[in-house]
């Protein structure tokens, strides 16, 4: 018996987390998923604001009402379109630890999380909590910025570094692309024009083509004189990509490729979702 595809979606009821819920529900419709809405309450912080509510009864009632409302809306909109089920859960604790713990408990396939996006005051390219979830998660994470509302993706951009695992990652991406009849651009970005990059690109392309059974895959080698992340951002915009995808088991992807762009006011995660593939 095949395991039901499971999506975990933490929410704090902010605009960005509501956008993440929409993405989770829409994708869940295609994968016939089980969707779990998840809120982490921080009773300690709440009691500082409402010291008379010792047992946090009013807080819990408020949170339950909010989740029930979201749950009802999703069932009404998405169950008829293919979502298998929707449920909700509240725990007390810290968002990162509890999200990762629940993901393991329910054997989630992906965590869909919202972020406020990058601003000049943050060290991380995305909000600190979403960033930590990306770094520490053992499963895929889809990061949805606050200003991004769901639309049917027409083009997915996969940033590759010529890893052997890319073959499996591309197949996973194609599974999503097929649902929307979307194009997939497999893009390798390098600094400067190097003969080795061109050679590796040709080898990778030759290896991938017979492995991929989808005729809407494009193989692109891009060279950028400046920062790689800014180059990828430019490609994402000029190619009209709807989602950036990367295979990243460790935090070094963000450190190596993105961190240096902060001073240049890169707007990557303000207007495009990021899907970080962690496993297969």
UniProtKB/TrEMBL annotation:
Signal peptide range in chain numbering: none
UspA domain location, by residue?
5-145
SUPFAM superfamilies under this entry? Adenine nucleotide alpha hydrolases-like
State the superkingdom.
Bacteria
Q: Tell me the Pfam families matching this sequence.
A: Usp
Q: Which InterPro entries match?
A: Universal_stress_UspA, UspA
Which family is annotated? Answer: Belongs to the universal stress protein A family.
- What is the protein's given name? Nucleotide-binding universal stress protein, UspA family
> What organism does the record attribute this protein to?
Algoriphagus ornithinivorans
The lineage, from the top, is: Bacteria, Pseudomonadati, Bacteroidota, Cytophagia, Cytophagales
């Amino acid at each position: 018996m095949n395991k039901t595809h499971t999506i975990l979606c933490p929410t704090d009821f902010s605009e960005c987390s509501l956008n993440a819920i929409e993405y989770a529900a829409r994708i869940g419709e295609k994968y016939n998923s089980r969707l779990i809405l998840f809120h982490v309450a921080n009773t300690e912080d709440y009691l500082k604001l409402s010291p008379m509510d010792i047992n946090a009864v009013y807080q819990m009632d408020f949170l339950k009402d909010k989740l029930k409302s979201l749950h009802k809306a999703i069932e009404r909109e998405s169950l008829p379109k293919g979502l298998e089920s929707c449920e909700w859960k509240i725990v007390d604790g810290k968002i990162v630890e509890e999200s990762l713990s629940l993901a393991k408990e329910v054997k989630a396939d992906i965590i869909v999380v919202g972020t406020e996006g990058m601003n000049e005051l943050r060290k991380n390219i995305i909000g600190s909590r979403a960033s930590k979830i990306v770094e520490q998660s053992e499963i895929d994470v889809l990061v949805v910025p606050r200003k991004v509302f769901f639309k049917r993706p027409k083009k997915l951009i996969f940033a590759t570094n010529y890893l052997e695992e890319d073959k499996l990652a591309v197949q996973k991406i194609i599974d999503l692309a097929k649902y929307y009849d979307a194009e997939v651009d497999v893009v390798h970005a390098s600094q400067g024009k190097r003969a080795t990059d061109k050679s590796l690109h040709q080898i990778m392309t030759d290896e991938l083509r017979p492995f991929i059974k989808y005729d809407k895959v494009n193989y692109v080698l891009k060279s950028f004189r400046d920062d790689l992340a800014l180059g990828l951002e430019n490609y994402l915009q000029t190619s009209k990509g709807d989602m950036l995808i990367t295979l990243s088991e460790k935090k070094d992807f963000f450190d190596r490729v993105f961190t240096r762009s902060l001073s240049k006011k890169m707007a990557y995660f303000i207007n495009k979702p990021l899907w970080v593939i962690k496993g297969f």
